[in-house]
Write a structure and sequence with these properties.
By secondary structure, this protein is α+β, with helices and mostly antiparallel strands. The protein is built from 7 helices and 11 strands. Strands 1, 2, 3, 4, 5 and 6 form a 6-stranded antiparallel sheet that branches. A hairpin with a 5-residue loop joins strand 7 and strand 8. Helix 1 runs antiparallel to helix 2 and helix 3 runs antiparallel to helix 4. The longest helix is centred in the first third of the chain and has 68 residues. The chain is rod-shaped, with a radius of gyration of 32 Å.
Length: about 325
């Protein structure tokens, strides 16, 4: 465990301890108020019995009055203590909320950095001679060389389902893994058309691919000749499971939730891995706050929960896809 991980773990542990001690303080205050109320009832009953006893109960009456004074003083002290404790609890909740926002920011930042690397990968590989040669002169020999290169990349990097070389007509020339895809037309695919039209990297949103049988993102980059003309497209399919390496390492309470949502508010990753691409969180104030553009980072308190949010800032050349991380912490 690194020092940073140890620090994050310690802070998360302290947050949870603070949260539970807040609840314990509430329980203590309820007990004090109950004792004060019982003392007042006891004083009242004692006064009634002393009155019934007449002269013989005079001494007991004095005791009853003292009990009543004690009950009143206890109730006043209890109220003052409650105000102080409520103030402490409010500040504690604010500390937890700020820390929860930090967790949301740190998580989306790590995700952005990971995806920025994928952005760099596709741009670098599109410049390789073997890739260019397979497009410029698609012979069995050049395509075999390109396939060997893509296979090598696929085996080394491990974070990809597939790598494709596509010619300017949209036909798949080379793949790293699924050779049955060679020859299929991608001419009608948005990622192909956008990459060629804009002469720039195009990144899809996260989606489920029947071809690779998994959740993925497509990164596509123009393949250019020596004059800068677009001659084809290199496209990759990122294995979404590697995003959970980041999410699983986030230190939050076991009863807390963490969601990665797209710009429409749809869950694309979560701590519990449930309802991916099917759950819409637009009913949450925090989600509405961030996807509406009202704010990019912060928190709201709703349903006795702290709901922190942070919108992607992107990282360097990777501008992000408008995603946000939502962290829900009970209080």
């Amino acid at each position: 465990m690194t020092k940073t991980q140890e620090k994050n773990l310690n802070v998360s542990t302290l947050m949870n301890e603070l949260k539970y001690q807040n609840k314990e303080m509430q329980t203590v205050m309820q007990k004090l108020q109950k004792i004060s109320l019982q003392s007042k009832i006891l004083a009242l009953n004692s006064g009634i019995e002393a009155a019934r006893a007449g002269e013989a109960g005079r001494g007991f009456s004095v005791v009853a009055k003292e009990i009543n004074k004690f009950a009143a003083a206890s109730m006043d002290a209890s109220k003052e203590s409650e105000e102080i404790i409520n103030s402490i609890q409010q500040k504690a909740n604010e500390i937890i909320a700020v820390r929860t926002v930090d967790i949301a920011f740190d998580t989306i930042d790590k995700i952005d950095r990971n995806l920025f690397e994928r952005n760099c990968d596709v741009q670098a590989w599109a410049t390789f001679d073997a890739v260019k040669n397979a497009v410029l002169d698609p012979t069995a020999e050049t395509k075999q060389a390109a396939q060997a290169l893509l296979k090598n990349i696929y085996e080394i990097y491990e974070v990809y389902f597939e790598l494709l070389v596509v010619d300017l007509n949209g036909s798949i020339l080379v793949t790293a893994k699924n050779q049955s895809e060679v020859g299929k037309s991608m001419a009608d695919r948005e990622w192909f058309k956008e990459t060629v039209a804009n002469n720039d990297v195009y990144v899809t949103d996260m989606y489920y691919s029947e071809v690779v049988q998994g959740y993925t993102m497509g990164y596509s980059c123009p393949i250019r000749d020596q004059f800068g003309n677009v001659i084809g497209v290199l496209s990759t399919r990122f294995n979404w499971d590697f995003i959970y390496d980041i999410i699983d390492n986030v230190k939050i309470d076991e009863h807390s939730n963490l969601y990665l949502i797209n710009k429409e508010g749809i869950v694309i990753a979560s701590k519990d891995r449930e309802n991916i691409l099917s759950k819409n969180l637009n009913n949450m104030k925090a989600v509405n706050q961030v996807i509406s553009g009202a704010d990019t980072r912060g928190y709201v308190i709703e349903n006795n929960q702290i709901c922190a949010y942070c919108l992607t800032e992107g990282y360097n050349a990777y501008k992000g896809k408008g995603w946000s991380v939502i962290v829900v912490e009970s209080i």
